[in-house]
């Protein structure tokens, strides 16, 4: 009797398994014949095993995720469920995923770093101020290298620290210093979970793009009942696997697609030390560049002067003026997609004397008793120029920063500049510029969407999904033409 036949009989036989999994008995017979369970049924079979309280993992081949260079950092914070994270480590160790583990001080009251170290066959990190660790693998490396940081269990305390930017130990410092996807699996007493402070922290973290594996509802170790129970380690493991699979699928979504993104402000010199510009930080454009790069696009980012780190995209070109930005965009054509995120200075100012004479702008303009006048010269509109040119990319997307009448003004721009999509936002009262959050409208020719306020990272993620839809529609139209 082969392994899978043994497994099926342990689970009640062909008929019973077929009925429970709602599939034909002939399919189960096939599994037995081939001694193999199809990967899309593996989870159902494991769940059936756990429902029947039978440990069946050793019957199933190790789930190896080949070509899957994924790194996870598991942070174990201190709660009654800390011991369950050992099972998560065990499950991850059966895959190709690289795993590092950090424990908080209170987690060490429940399980020991030695136990974690022997399970993970790797040092477990516990100390922010360890001279030995900081020389080998410092906390910034621990924060930067993983694809996912999983906090499991996540206590109310670690949620509060992250929501409020506290960094008083290794775990909270890593969470604050990381660009990685953060996933929290909370576990706490139901009253703590429902406390308004925890609710507020939860909402804040969600808005910042942090993902939650929701706690289960049921009886707690403390004797109370309600929402707050740590989800089954296997459910957490499966959540992580499906996140990675989705990521892997998305990583080729924009393969061979060339994309030009303009971002940041432009600055227009008046003389060697004075200039006209605006408050754009470049954050939204950089997030879009980063998301598109993750999905396999060849991104050229053309940016005005900003003070944020550059994303890891194919090409970054630094410019100062609107004219330089236009010249560089033009040089990068043809491209499949153009996204004009930059807040281009609409005018450059030419200083003049009160008698309308030009002033030497190669040197600093001197203060005199005479009135100083400026002639405003309109800068080229990069978006409109390219959208109406012969080399117009397949998809052209613009942004629209408005202080009033957002939808109507943005729709007019969509039509007059000949673009496919405008992302509009309200910048009245200093909103948006420089912030980490954005509340946007998406204006298309025939419809519009209004999105909830969310992090610029999250806007980028969802926007890239919409860009993919636009590209699919473009390709369909091209086929039918
Ligand atoms: O007309 P308005 O400046 O509001 O249009 C905003 C959109 O046009 C943005 O996508 C911006 O990047 C683009 N734009 C441009 N060149 C300009 C002005 C705006 O590409 N000179």
| Low-confidence spans | none
- Oligomeric state, counting identical vs distinct chains: single chain
From the N-terminal CA to the C-terminal CA, the straight-line distance is 59 Å
What would you call the structural class?
alpha/beta
Total helical elements: 19
Number of E-type strands: 22
Shape: elongated
- How much of the sequence lies in strands comes to 15-25%
Largest sheet descriptor:
8 strands, mixed
What does the average pLDDT come to? 91
Descriptive overview:
Strand 20 and strand 21 form a beta hairpin. By secondary structure, the chain is α/β, with parallel strands linked by helices. It folds into three domains: 3-53, 434 Repressor (Amino-terminal Domain); 71-250, 3-Layer(aba) Sandwich (Rossmann fold); 258-480, 3-Layer(aba) Sandwich (Rossmann fold). Helix 2 crosses helix 3 (25-34) and helix 5 crosses helix 14 (233-250). The model has no long low-confidence stretch (mean pLDDT 91). It contains 19 helices and 22 strands. The longest helix is centred in the last third of the chain and has 25 residues, at 456-480. The radius of gyration is 28 Å and the shape is elongated. The termini are far apart. The strands form six sheets. An eight-stranded mixed sheet has the order 13-12-9-14-17-18-20-21, with helices on both faces. Strands 3-2-1-4-5-6 form a six-stranded parallel sheet, with helices on both faces. Bound molecules: cytidine-5'-monophosphate (C5P).
């Amino acid at each position: 009797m082969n392994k899978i036949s043994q497994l099926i009989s342990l689970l009640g036989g062909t008929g019973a398994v077929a009925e429970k999994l709602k599939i034909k008995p002939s399919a189960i017979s096939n599994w037995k014949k081939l001694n193999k369970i199809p990967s899309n049924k593996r989870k159902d079979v494991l769940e059936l095993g756990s429902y029947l309280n039978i440990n069946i993992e050793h019957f199933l081949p190790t789930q190896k995720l080949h070509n899957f260079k994924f790194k996870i950092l598991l942070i174990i914070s201190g709660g009654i469920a800390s011991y369950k994270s050992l099972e998560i480590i065990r499950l991850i160790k059966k895959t190709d995923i690289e795993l590092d583990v950090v424990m908080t001080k209170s987690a060490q009251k429940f399980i020991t770093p030695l136990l974690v170290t022997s399970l993970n066959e790797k040092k477990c990190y516990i100390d922010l101020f360890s001279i030995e660790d900081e020389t080998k693998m410092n906390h910034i490396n621990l924060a930067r290298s993983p694809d996912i940081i999983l906090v499991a269990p996540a206590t109310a305390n670690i949620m509060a620290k992250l929501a409020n930017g506290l960094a008083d130990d290794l775990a909270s410092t890593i969470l604050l210093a990381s660009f990685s996807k953060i996933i929290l699996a909370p576990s706490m007493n139901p009253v703590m979970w429902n406390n308004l402070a925890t609710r507020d922290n939860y909402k804040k973290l969600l808005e910042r793009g942090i993902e939650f594996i929701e706690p289960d509802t049921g009886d707690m170790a403390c004797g109370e009942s309600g929402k707050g129970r740590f989800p089954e380690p296997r459910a957490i493991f499966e959540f992580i696997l499906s996140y990675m699979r989705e990521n892997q699928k998305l990583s080729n979504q924009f393969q061979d697609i060339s994309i030009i993104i303009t971002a940041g402000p432009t600055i227009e010199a008046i003389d060697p030390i004075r200039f006209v510009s605006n408050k754009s930080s470049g954050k939204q454009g950089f997030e879009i560049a980063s998301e598109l790069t993750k999905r396999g696009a060849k991104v050229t980012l053309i940016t005005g002067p900003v003070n944020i780190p550059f994303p890891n995209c194919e090409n970054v070109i630094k410019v100062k003026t609107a004219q330089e930005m236009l010249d560089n965009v033009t040089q990068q054509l043809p491209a499949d997609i153009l996204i004009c995120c930059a807040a281009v200075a609409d005018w450059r100012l030419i200083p003049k004397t009160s008698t309308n004479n030009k002033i030497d702008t190669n040197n600093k303009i001197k203060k005199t008793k005479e009135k100083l006048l400026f002639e405003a010269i309109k800068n080229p509109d990069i978006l409109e120029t390219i959208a109406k040119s012969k080399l117009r990319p397949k998809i052209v997307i613009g942004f629209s920063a408005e202080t009033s009448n957002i939808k109507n003004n943005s729709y007019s721009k969509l039509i007059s500049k000949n673009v496919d999509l405008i992302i509009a936002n309200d910048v009245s009262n200093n909103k948006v510029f420089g912030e980490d959050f954005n509340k946007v409208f998406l204006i298309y020719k025939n419809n519009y969407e209004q999105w909830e306020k969310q992090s610029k990272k999250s806007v980028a993620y969802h926007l890239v999904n919409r860009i993919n839809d636009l590209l699919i529609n473009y390709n369909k139209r091209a086929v039918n033409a």
